[in-house]
Amino acid sequence: MPDTPPVRFLDRSTPPHIATLILLAGISALAMNIFLPSLPGMTAYFDTEYRLMQLSVALYLGVNAALQVVMGPVSDRLGRRPVIIGGLAFFLLATLGCILAPNVYVFLTFRMMQATIVVAMVLSRAVVRDMVPQDEAASMIGYVTMGMAVVPMIGPAFGGLLDELFGWKASFWALIGLGALVLWLAWADMGETAPRRHASMRQQIREYPELLTAPRFWGYALATAFSSGAFFAYLGGAPFVGDKVFGLPPAQLGLLFGAPAVGYFLGNFASGSFSVRIGVNRMVLWGTVFNAGGIGINLALFHAGHGGALGFFGLMTLMGLGNGMIIPNATSGALSVRPHLAGTASGLAGALMIGGGGALSALAGALLVPGRGAFPLLWIMFATAMAGLVAILLVMRRERRLAHH
C-alpha cells in the first residue's frame, strides 16, 4: 500500500509497530483468563460459592461490553493514544485492588474495574483499520489477534503453575508486571492514527443509527458475537467441567484449558495468509463450519457415552480454529461497512461480542451443577455456533442482492 504511513518502532510521531498492537491485544486477553484455573481455590480463599466466584468472568465481560460502546466514539474524537494509555493505567490500579481485596465483594468490584483493559483490544483493531483497507485490514487484524491466541494458549497454563507454586494472587502480580511493561511500550511507540474529528460526542452518538440500520454491519457483528459466544461459554463452564466432571488438578486443567487457543492461533494465521486472496465472507463462512462442527462432534461423543477429558478439550481446538478465522474477518467487515465510524463500529461490534459472551458465561456457570456433566455447556455452545453460521449466510445473501442492484 503506497499510502500506508511509514512505521518506525519506538517513534511516537509514526503509527504503532505491529508488535505493539499484538502485545496490546495480548495483555487484554491475558487479563480475561490467566486466573481461571485458580477459581476453585479462590472460592475456598474467600469462603464463598463457585457461582459467586465465577461472576468474576461474567461481570468483567459485562463491564467490558459497556465500556466498548463508549470507548469507540471517545477514541474517534480524542484519538486512540490517550484512551489506550489511560485505560492501561486504570487497569494497573484495579489489579492491585484485586490483590488487596478483603472479601469476594470487594474483589468482584475491582475485577469489574479491571475491564478498562478492553481499550487495548478494541482500539488495536481500530488502529489497523485507520491504517489499511478492508481485506488488508482483515489480514493484519489476523496477525494482531494472534496476541489474543498465543496468550490464552499459555495464560491458563501459566496461571495454574503460578497458583500451585505461590497461590492465586501470583497471577494478578504477573498482570501488574506485564501491564506496566505494555503501558511503557504504548507510551513510547504509539503514534496517533485516528483522523482528527471535530464532531461532539452528541453528534457522534447521533451517527449510531447510520451503523444500526446497516444490515451487513449487524450480520458481521452477530456472526462474531455468536461464534465467540461459544468460546465465552467455554470460559465460564470449562473450569467447572475440568474440576468437577474430570477431577483435574489446577496445573493440568490450565494446560488442557488452552486447547482452543492452539486452533485460534492457526485460524489467525490462516486469516493473515488467505483473507486478501479469498475475501472476508468465505473465510467467515468456513470458520463458522469448523466452529459448529467441532462442538457438534464433541456433543455426539458425550451422548454416545465416549466423553473424556482429552476428547472434550482436544475437540475445542476446532472451535478455536473457527474463531481464529471468524473474528478478524468479520471484525474487518463490520469496520468497513462505514469506514469513517471505525472506532464506533469496533466498540459496538465488540460490545455485542463481549456482552453476549458475558451472558453466556454466566448462563454456563448457572446451569453447570454436579450430576449433569458437560451437557449443559456443550448444548449452549452448539446453539450459539449454529447461530453464527446463519448470520454469515444472511450477510452473503445481502451482498448478492446488493450486487444485482
Overview in brief:
This protein has 405 residues and is mainly α. The protein has helices at residues 18-33, 39-45, 50-78, 80-100, 104-113, 118-131, 134-144, 147-166, 169-189, 201-206, 208-212, 215-245, 250-257, 259-278, 280-303, 309-314, 316-337, 342-367, 375-404. It is built from 19 helices and no strands.
Task: Give an overview of the whole structure.
It is a single chain. The protein has 405 residues and is mainly alpha-helical. The protein has one domain (18-404): MFS general substrate transporter like domains (Growth Hormone, Chain: A), CATH 1.20.1250.20. It has 19 helices and no strands. The longest helix has 31 residues, at 215-245. It is globular, with a radius of gyration of 20 Å. The mean pLDDT is 85.
**First-last Cα distance:** 30 Å
Largest sheet: number of strands, sense, barrel closure: none
**What is the CATH topology assignment?**
Growth Hormone, Chain: A
Total of domains: 1
Which class in CATH terms?
A: Mainly Alpha
CATH architecture: Up-down Bundle
Proportion in helices: over 70%
Given the C-alpha coordinates, what overall shape results? Answer: globular
SSE series? HHHHHHHHHHHHHHHHHHH
Unreliable stretches: none
Radius of gyration: 20 Å
